[in-house]
Amino acid sequence: MPCDVNYLGEGIDRLVCIDLKSRGIIYPLYEAARSLVNKPLTSTAAKLIVENLKAKEVVIITTGFRLPPLGVQETDGILGAASLAKALRTALNAKPILLIEENSTAVLMAILKSLGEKTTVVLGLPTRKLEEAKEKAEEILDEYSPTALIAIEKAGCNNLGEYHTMKGENVTNFHTKIEAIVEKAWKKGTVTLAIGDGGNEVGMGNIKEVVERIVPYATQCCCPCKSGIASQSKVDLLIPAAISNWGAYGIQTCIAWLTQKPEVLHTSEMEQKMLKTAINVGAIDGLTRKNELSVDGIPMNIHLSFIKLLQAFLHKENLNAKF
Ligand SMILES: [Zn+2]
Question: Residue 228 and residue 207: Cα distance in Å, rounded?
C-alpha cells in the first residue's frame, strides 16, 4: 500500500489534467511545470501548504476572470477559490482572505454562503489604475501578513501589463493589477502558488517559453498591444490543470489525505450548490460565455462525477495507509 502523498499526487495530477475538451495545451503545460520540480504538482502544493501554514495564519486566495463584452465573472476559478478557502480553514484552522475584483465580490460571497462559509473575508479590488492596485496591495499585505498566497484562474498580464482572454481579446479594464500584490508578497517571503489552465493566468511566467510555443495568441493577441496573451508573473509553484477548479480540488484531496480529514474535499452536493449559486447570481461559463450550468464548456454532471472520483482516493484503507 502506498504511504507517500506523492504517490497519491501522481494519480490526482493525471485526473486534474484530463483534457476532456481536447483543447490541446494542458499536457505540455503540465509537463513543463512538472519538470521544474520533478514531483507530482498537486501533492507538492499540498505539502507546501500544510508545512508552512499554521493555525490562525492568513492565506490569501485570489481569483477573478471577467469576460467581454460586459465583464462578467466566469465559473472557473471562483468555485475552486471558495472550496479551497473552506478546506484550509477546516484542515489547518487557517484564516483565508479572498481577493477578487470589486464587481465579482457578490458572486464569490454568494458561493461561500452556499458552502456555509460565513467567516471568510472577501476583499474587492479596484480595476482601473495600476497605482490604485499597488496602494491596495501594500495595505492588504501590511494588515494581514499572509503566510501563503494562492492564485486560481487569476487573470495575469503580459509583458506590457495588458490582460487578455484565451481568444486574444483585451480585458485590462475588467481586472485588478494583481501582480502588484503577488510580487510584493513573494519578496516578503510569502509562499506563492498558482493554478491555471490556459497560459494567460498568474503564475504562467514560470513556463512562459512553452506557453509561447503552444498556446494560440500567446505571442500575438487581437488587441492593439500586439504582444500576446502569455502571462509574465512567476510564483514558487505552478499547478496547471485542465480546468483550474479541478486543480484546487486536487490539492484539497491531497490535504485531506495529509491531515486525515476526508471532509476537506467538498462533496458533489456542495459542488452542485456552488455552481447553481454562481449561475443564479449571474456568472457565465468561460468557454461558452453563457449563463448555464457548466464550467469551461463541461456540464455540471461531469464536475459532480469528478468530485466523486477524487473522493475515491480518500477511501478508508487509503487514509489509514498513512499510519
Ligand atoms: Zn494585446
Answer: 15
